[in-house]
Amino acid sequence: MTKDQVAELEGRAKEIRVLTIDAIGHLGVGHIGGAMSVADLLALLYFRRMDVDPKDPRRADRDQLVLSKGHAGPALYATLALKGYFPIEWLRTLNVGGTALPSHCDRNRTPGIDMTTGSLGQGISAACGIALGNRLASVGSRVYCVIGDGECDEGQVWEAAMFAAHYKLDRLTTFVDRNGMQIDGRTDEIMALGSLAAKWRAFGWFVQEVDGHDMGAMDGAIGAAALELGRPSMIILDTIKGKGFSIGEGKVESHNMSFGAEEAKKAIAALEGR
Ligand SMILES: Cc1ncc(C[n+]2csc(CCOP(=O)(O)OP(=O)(O)O)c2C)c(N)n1
User: Fold this and answer.
1) pTM for the complete prediction?
2) Does the Cβ of 28 fall within 6 Å of ligand 1?
3) Which among 27, 69, 81, 256 counts the fewest CB atoms within 10 Å?
């Protein structure tokens, strides 16, 4: 990637963060921490890597994303709005009655959402199913999946890990958003994960570890994953929970935080360097 391309993607990530803070601030409460930590990845996927068409969100051979940590939905909604799936104005309808944008992802309600998620552990299984289904249908597209590090406490994640390796799902690239925190504390204290890289390798995956706020590093890893044949790919992203949200950055409390429009305004000004 050139410097200009990196700068453009960083600009997109900033827009995603601004719109996510605005939407959650407008509502008054939401999962801001885990949304901020994946904003850079979402910018990279939707504005560089994924072959998708906002005018045809269900195109059979599109690349797909399963946001298994479905509570980060608001960041994905901001990304999809910027990409042109629906009007930016929808973002302020986050989680109000009758909305197309519920707090957690719902493929039946939101254009561009590929899988309904929110019950942790299930999304990665769904991603495996999509990848295997694509192979059976001779569809050559890629499936991306994002799980949380706290989500790795779920046994179902490891069933999916075995399944993907057994079926050699080499068109599946999964990311762990390793922000070191989950709902009620640091992952080290709640359920220590040890070496995640060693675990995923032991399950038969091609594993890379990169800085989840570094566009170039992530892009390189996604490229290397695409070249890997015969096994699924895991890219462990080292991230900061609440990244870019001045009130909550690096804090466990950012997980599901209450804040209003005024605080959102201040946080957005800080993010934009005003
Ligand atoms: C099966 C299930 N159990 C509990 C929850 C409630 N919950 C929502 S987010 C969360 C913590 C997830 O931590 P992590 O995966 O690290 O997410 P992140 O820190 O990236 O937001 C929990 C326990 C859930 N959504 N699903």
Assistant:
1) 0.98
2) no
3) 256
